[in-house]
Amino acid sequence: MKTPKGIPVSTSSEPKTLPPTGNSHQSRLPNQAQTGFGKRAFAGTIWLLADTFSSKILTIGLQLVLARLLVPEDFGLMGLAATVTGFALIVQSAGIGEVLVQRHLKVNRWSNAAFWMSLATSLLAALIIACAAPIAARIYGEPRLVSVMLLLALSCPLNGLTTVPLAILTGRMQFKVLAMVNLVMLTAGGVLTLLFAYFGFGVYALVIPSLIVLPLKVLWVWRQSRPRVLMALQFRRWRLLVSDSVYVFLIRLFQAMVLQGDYILLGLLFSSHEVGLYFFAFGISGQVIGMVVANFNKAVFPAMVAFHSEPPRQFAVFRGLLSVTCAVVLPASFILSALAPHFVGIFFGSRWEGCGPIIAALSPGIGLTCCAAVGATLLRAQGRFRSELWVSIGMVLPYFSLLLIGAKLGGVIGLAVGESVYFGFVQQIYLLVAVRGMSRMKVWHCIWPGLSAACVAWAVAMIVSRMLLPQQHEAIQFLAAGSLAVACATLTLRITDRATFQEVSNKILPIVRRFPFFAKA
Predict the structure, then answer these.
(1) pLDDT tens, 315-346?
(2) 516 — alpha (psi -120 to 50), left (phi > 0) or beta?
(3) Of 156, 151, 162, which Cα lies nearest the Cα of 81?
(4) Are 182 and 116 in contact (CB under 8 A)?
(5) Are 61 and 224 in contact (CB under 8 A)?
(6) What are phi and psi of 418, to 5 degrees?
(7) Does residue 32 contact residue 173 with C-beta atoms inside 8 Å?
(8) Coil, strand or helix at 507
(9) Contact 42, 507 (CB under 8 A)
């Protein structure tokens, strides 16, 4: 997620958010028992954390195997295809899901119009991808892009059929169902991907499985949500849906310029092999932040929406989310940056050694984007779509400037450095706009413990792996440096923010132990 300068356009649609009274650490994570929404959101976050943690483990395992079955050019083709499909998928979603979550109390009134509208936008997205396929193939000089993109286009209508059911389940906070659906579909898709890759399907192994599992996902979520759908299209309500979703659509459009901008430049300036290395490296670097951001959208966003009329409580939830996120994401990202060459060498082999420096450059910036992600979540929960839109527009020029300068000075690695600088610094405008009118010092107090733990962990990992054990086997360097870095990060966090450290442990561990696997352990 990326954002530009926040220029408030309408004070009526952007209510001022007041900071909570009191300065105790306990105000960061309000007592979840005080409200049904809080309890359900917190328990839901745990379900989704368990789901996304499992999903990321499966994804990493899948990447480990695919790295030996596929070549960088296959991943490069997917990266090039994403430069078109990324924009088309924005047309497909059109912000309809977010609007339904915002209107979850009246979802039966809007579900029928939202269904037909999402189906129409999905068909339009498929048409855009199909028409753009030969153009993209000619621009990038990759004939195989045509067939890859045509297959990707077929998945658009299937994805569109899940928009309304998923929004209903999210609004109801049925996170256990969402977690199970995601995990089962990912596992089935991963198994099929490995089978197709093993039998020599190449890049098509990354595309065909989704066409097989998506129909099963559609049936599952419809059975669980049972949306109210009629044969009447209700065109008049489309306009009312668009009045809110147009902001979300424009926000996603400008954010897509940033999300896909690196692949566009890579496709124009470098070979498909280098695009593949970058695509693979970005996927590895984004695993931790991807896990956390997925939970923002699924669990925390509905809870923040529920507190829309209570700014102090909403701000308290925001601060708690920010402090916990920084404490988890930043150390993990910085440690990965320090140990990236060893990580790639051990798990992926010499074919992918070019990914090491790219991961090292990307990981710190991608980790820091968690702060901006929390800020963007707060903006949407407050209904401040216009501010987020202005920020998204303003981010485009700095982003491409940094990438072009980096690519000119340092090739693919230089481009990765430019991307990391953007994520780590420029994108924080999202956070600054979100906390307008709040105490920014209190916000900083949520960030600096995690950031200090991350810096200590990075320094320890670098010193141990490169100075104390330079002649040891790569696996020994990785394990020793990683273990010490994690221990030092934990100790630093405990010293700098003991209250949050204990609060997270006391509230998360009892819920985690409810799961059968941990209960047996």
Answers:
(1) 888 888 888 888 888 998 999 999 998 888 88
(2) alpha
(3) 151
(4) no
(5) no
(6) -60, -40
(7) no
(8) helix
(9) yes
